[in-house]
Amino acid sequence: MLEYKDNGLIPAIIQDDASGDILMLGYMNEESIRRTLQSGEVWFYSRSRRELWHKGATSGNVLTLRSIKTDCDEDAILIRAAPAGPTCHTGERSCFFAEIPEELRTPAST
Predict the structure, then answer these.
(1) On the chain, which terminus has fewer CB atoms closer than 10 Å, C or N?
(2) Dist. CA 5–CA 87, nearest whole Å
């Protein structure tokens, strides 16, 4: 049984099925999971807009579902998908393209 947070959401990691690259992190609720499984394309719940969000509905960059699994604690989801284009809203292939700022890489002085 999936363990949703108090807000009814569960984190979903999206992985490119072909390359294995991590593409993004989104949040899903029961309805977005249901729509994903029924349609074969990935749906999320937008926390900022407070509504369901069909990834790629406006851009055409849909994520076609390949598999969906939970972690051992059932409090996160891993979705393997085939992206139809860039996944990030910036136009980057993955949302994980920025390096950690330099000031966080150096040890903190005590």
Answers:
(1) C
(2) 25
Instruction: Look at residue 30 and tell me if it is in a domain.
Output: yes
Structure tokens at 45: 């719940």
Long-range contacts of 29-34 (CB under 8 A, 24+ apart): 29/4, 30/4, 33/2, 33/68, 33/77
Q: Provide the pLDDT for residue 109.
A: 63
Give the per-residue pLDDT at 108: 66
Residue with tokens 């309805």: 31
Query: Domain tally for the chain?
Result: 1
Structure pTM? 0.88
Q: Which two tokens stand for residue 2?
A: 């999936």
Do the beta carbons of residue 92 and residue 99 sit within 8 Å? no
Tell whether 100 is covered by a domain. Answer: no
| pLDDT tens profile 48-100 | 999 999 999 999 999 999 999 999 999 999 999 999 999 999 999 999 999 98
Q: What are the strands of the beta sheet with 10-16, ordered from one edge? A: 22-28, 10-16, 77-83, 63-70
Give the domain range for residue 15.
1-80
